[in-house]
Amino acid sequence: MASVTGFLVSPAGAVRHHWFGVRAVLSSESGTVAAVNGSSSQNGSLALKEEKKVPLLRGEEEEEGLAALWDDGYGRRSVEDYFAAAKEMCKSDGGPPRWFCPLECGPPFKDSPTLLFLPGMDGTGLGLTLHHKALGKAFEVRCLHIPVHDRTPFEGLVKLVGEAVKLECALSPNKPIYLVGDSLGGSLALAVAAHNPTVDLVLILANPATSFGQSQLQPLFPFMEALPDEMHVAVPFLLSFIMGDPVKMASVSIENKLPPAKKIEQLSYNLTALLPCLPELADIIPRDTLLWKLKLLKSAAAYANSRIHAVEAEVLVLASGKDNMLPSTNEAQRLVGLLQNCKVRVFKDSGHTLLLEDGIGLLTIIKGTCMYRRSRRHDLVRDFIPPSMTEFRYAMDQVVGSFRSATGSVFFSTLEDGKIVKGLSGVPDEGPVLYVGYHMLLGLELISLTDGFLSEKGIALRGIAHPDLFRPEVESWSSEFSMFDWVKIFGGVPVSASNIFKLLSTKSHVLLYPGGAREALHYKGEEYKLIWPDHPEFVRMAARFGATIVPFGAVGEDDIAELVLDYNDLMKIPIVNDQIRNMNRDSVKFRDETSGEVANQNLSFPVLLPKIPGRFYFLFGKPIRTKGMDKMLKDRESANQMYLQIKSEVEHNLNYLIKKREEDPYRNFIDRKMYQIFYPPETDSTPSFNP
């Protein structure tokens, strides 16, 4: 259970390397540290009893980074933990607003930016309870606590947070400062940003209360003021159902892989445990406090809206589709039109308390929208945080689970002696490695590659992707968290020489398709045809860093769907051809005619006819070591010979798989499912042909 022992003494920006935990928080009054039990000391000294100390968590060393499939802790904490911590904190609540740092956050890795959390109506500062551990790896987290009986006006809160922002900026002028505002905190974040246009701020606003004037509950607020004290105990209970979805709150700790019957059983248990906690809102938000907070919401919305034109910060708005308190989806679209640099993600099934409900973790959202950075300039290579185990499981089960089941991918690799074996044991463990291969239709093989390498090797592939996937225009296609966001979470970067240079210099495992979009959107009759540049683009770069090149082939696109209409067919259809021309005209061009057919960017998404699924097959050839081959850096002929060798290897791998898959008794989807009925995948993977 979360408790007040999970707080650090932490003025915003003051604690950098020493991570000690005590039951205390720093108040907004300079030099005063107030203990949670109410005792305090002056002049910055800390008068606490010995038993109040928490053991040292870490020395001065900070973590350098995270490995793939790291533990982000999401799902271990629940709303029950929020209520338990909030109840304990409110027992002896007094004094002015203050900052605290949850011990769960732990020490972040090196050069992490600071994140200041600004709470909603509850004021506890515990709204990130579900996300503490994950955020604590990437940020130095500080949470604002506004005591129950505090009556600091909105202007005072703006001043308090503004001072913390200025202090943090002075300590780390080259790093951004993140303000995560929940509801009321969203208005507060915008107001602070308006007052600090020269500070590098990134705002994450969860259902910001700037639309409070249009709240669906406005007609009910006068009745709350006239409600007798003895009836108030029912108000927070009713508000809990209006503000959030109890079912989604109770679903946080339920594993996705559980059978439906087990899920229902666990949900029933969680709901039974959660419902008795809801009346405790009466202690967290007493009657007088509730009436004060409603007035605060009104003044906050007016204050923020009157200054929104001055906000120059980078902004991400998270809006709930089932927010029964505020028209958050409409407000998100309004803010996009008013703010200079604003993105939106809509979560259609979530309620007002978005950050306390089951779904995608906040750090995942920040990563997927390319909002995480550790310096003034965003760097997709150096700012990359590998996918966590939670992200991996969510994506593979909830996002692409059906596709994985349908394709039944099987991997083969080649050992140093040339022997082909099932699995990825022939693939190098240490980077830098450059995987060069054939790009299936629509890049369908990417899901299987990501899954296979993370599952078997614990390696996060850094895919070189088309720049169009990272353009702002993609944001207008959908405001929901989409596959484009997941591409970024799992390591996709736009193709460029500088990005490949940085990836190889950091010993990454890089996935490169020389055929690019032209190969992935090929025409009829071009299945398994390599459409590569006429000259080597990557060989000398690999040799410069001594990278290992692994050529690979991937087949199976013709077992999934039939290409009915390609680019040439679609260009014969009126109206459709105009749309394709417009799309191609706006597309990023990064190759010229000297590259050959691959530079042809007259492309479109084809029309496909699905088939009863077959199977995907992958063969990774014998690794080619470039270490010590410095002559290729100057000798174009040597580089070209290696390039042709790699291309030949990929073609050989494709031909091998096309031939050998005929020997697979479980190539057909139905045959595989019948096998899995008798031999569940947990105990034995579905066999394939013998290499």
UniProtKB/TrEMBL annotation:
UniProt domain AB hydrolase-1: residue ranges: 116-358
One GO CC term on file: membrane
GO biological process: triglyceride biosynthetic process
GO MF terms, alphabetically ordered: diacylglycerol O-acyltransferase activity
Keywords, ordered alphabetically: Acyltransferase, Transferase
InterPro entries, per database record: AB_hydrolase_1, AB_hydrolase_fold, DAGAT
Signal peptide per UniProt: none
PANTHER family named among the record's database cross-references: MONOACYLGLYCEROL_DIACYLGLYCEROL O-ACYLTRANSFERASE, TRANSMEMBRANE PROTEIN 68
Record family assignment: Belongs to the diacylglycerol acyltransferase family.
Name of the protein this chain belongs to: AB hydrolase-1 domain-containing protein
Protein's organism: Glycine max
Organism taxonomic ancestry: Eukaryota, Viridiplantae, Streptophyta, Embryophyta, Tracheophyta
